[in-house]
Amino acid sequence: MKRHLESEHGMDFARLGIAGNFVISIGIILVTAGGSWDITNHILNKPETFFAPPHAVLYSGVGIALLGFLALYVGWQKSRKTLPFQRGIRISGFGMILLLAAGPADFVWHSNFGLDGLLSPPHLVLISGMILSCVGALVNSAKHLAKPAHLSVILVVTSLIPVWFSITGLFYSFSLPFSETDYFDYNPHPVFAAVFASAAYPFLISVILILASALGRYRFGMATAVGASYLGIMSLTAIVPNESLVATVPFYWLNLIPIVFGDLVISKVRTARAPYVAGAIFGSAFFFMYYPLIAYTYNEVMFQKVMWPSLTSLVYFELVPAVSPILACVGATAGLFGTKSAKFILGILVGDKKGD
Amino acid sequence: MAAYFALTALVVPQLYSGAEINEPRPRIDVLISSDQISLGQSFDVTVRSHNDGGTADMQTVSVAFPSRDSLEEISITSYDFMQSPILIEAGEEIGSEYTAGEVTVTSQYSAIEAYSRPSHPGDTFTMILKVTPKEAGPFHVYAKSVAMPHLSDKSHFPDSGILDHQNEFVQQYVVEVSR
User: Fold this and answer.
1) Separation of alpha carbons B64 and A275, rounded Å
2) Which of A161, A170, A263, B137 has the smallest set of CB atoms within 10 Å of its CB?
3) Most A CBs within 10 Å: which of B1, B7, B11, B57, as the mutation test of the A interface?
4) What is the ipTM for the molecules in this complex?
5) One digit per residue, pLDDT tens: chain B, 179 residues?
6) How far is Cα B70 from Cα B109, in angstroms, rounded to an integer?
């Protein structure tokens, strides 16, 4: 039977399922962008209510992702499960349950404990839901992208960006000193936070960009498109809202250089080592790609200054000569492990038949 | 990649580190509705904050009552600062010396701290307090404003005069309460 079945009403349910999967990723992009904006908003404005604009974006994203999941599930069921989306639907479905549970839990937490920190039980539920929802969508997208006729840079970008940002959200929770409130102190130990950030961020960058290139069949531009999208969202949600950082946007976009260079290496040099070289390049730039928030992590172990939003860039640029040479080396090493892991993950995403 | 690291690690940090900071300059206008009242009567303290300099990440306005341990005689009747006020009574740990909490002391008397995050140039915020003294005699009121980040003497108002329990300068007002 053909994959693209049509019902008696003329509806193409397979397409509905594929579109639904795409919409899940769009929804989670909104959730993660709202989350990044929310962190910046807390730094700048110290909001005291749950009903803040970043929360509106965040929970609109949850709603969109939920609609996407319903479309995916209905499309998959009605197309008589010919789409190879079973595993992805299970993962996304569990993520959706967590996302839906996180909203009321977050509201109750705010109501009882006022201003909340970055790391809190409802936020962990929310982040876990974000990660599972978009990983499920990525699993499905990888199956779709594996067909020769389905290569799409937009699908690669929309599948990987939410995964990148939602896992970044998890890593932020364990590396940024934003989790001390009147009621709880969940701040990570400064040394742990710095060590964790030094390993986790470059590893993640490498995994995502190597996967982008691999899912795009090593065509030049795939990793660049994902990397540029990341830089764009970070610029809009973490830099531009802070008026004192706006002048540093050109500096931040210098990070396109290692992304393009790594992309060139992996797409043009056809050797077994090329992906590792690219992964090391991607990882080596992590201290610059995670500007400006990473300044808070390393300030805790290097300077212990009181961080004000308008002084963030000054502290960061004071940190650069002190830590960036060693962090570039550490990041390159973590990038090598990221490449190894990306290859393993790629094997799971497209290499077996269990999800079919 | 060498060019990238040279730019990001050497050239750009020097460019941005030399950038000038437009320092915030807080100022307050304080109006006491009456300088003499009878016991049982009330007076109002109206404090309006201004920022005459660059954007402050936070501007606080503190109104303190050095002859009172608690705030039972004081109520807030009007308030348009961006964040909720902090109510301080004697014996609490509070920041001092304009360090935003890096150096702390124990409060010796009560105070109300209003604050806005951020405070842009030209922003004004107003707090009105109603005070109903329960004892006769002079009733002292201290008022000050501090901008963060605190970069110099321009970041606080007033910049001279009486030092309060936080080792910070304040303006003093007195209302005589007669029997």
Assistant:
1) 64
2) B137
3) B57
4) 0.86
5) 888 988 888 888 888 877 778 899 999 999 999 999 999 999 999 999 999 999 999 999 999 999 999 999 999 999 999 999 999 999 999 999 999 888 999 999 999 999 999 999 999 999 999 999 999 999 999 999 999 999 999 999 999 999 999 999 999 999 999 98
6) 7
Contacts of A205 (CB under 8 A, 6+ apart): A282, A283, A285, A286, A289, A335, A338
Nearest C-alpha in B relative to A248? B16
Whether A326 has its CB under 8 Å from any CB of chain B: the answer is: no
* Cβ A294 vs Cβ A302: under 8 Å: no
Say whether A261 and B9 touch across the interface (CB within 8 A). no
Q: Which residue type occupies A136?
A: G
> What pTM, to 2 d.p., does this model score?
0.89
Interatomic CA distance for residues A169 and A9, integer angstroms: 43
Question: Are B149 and A310 within 8 A, CB to CB?
Answer: yes
Q: Which of A44, A284, A324 sits opposite B117 (nearest CB)?
A: A44
Q: Which of B8, B17, B102 sits opposite A288 (nearest CB)?
A: B8
Bond from prior residue into A122 cis (ω within 30 degrees of 0): no
Ranges of each domain in chain B:
23-178
Q: Return the CATH number of B23-178, one of 2.60.40.1510, 3.40.50.2300, 1.10.260.40, 3.30.300.130.
A: 2.60.40.1510
Q: How far is CA A311 from the centre of its chain?
A: 26
> Residue A248 and residue B117: Cβ atoms within 8 Å?
no
Q: Do residues B17 and A317 make contact, with C-beta atoms less than 8 angstroms apart?
A: yes
Nearest CA in chain B to A281: B1
Cis peptide before B85 (omega within 30 of 0): no
A40: tokens are 């910046």
Q: What is the pLDDT of residues A298-338, one digit of tens each?
A: 999 999 888 999 999 999 999 999 999 999 999 999 999 99
Helix or strand (DSSP H, E) at A79: none
Contact B17 A318 (CB under 8 A): yes
The one-letter amino acid code at B66 reads P
Chain B contact for A220, CB < 8 A? no
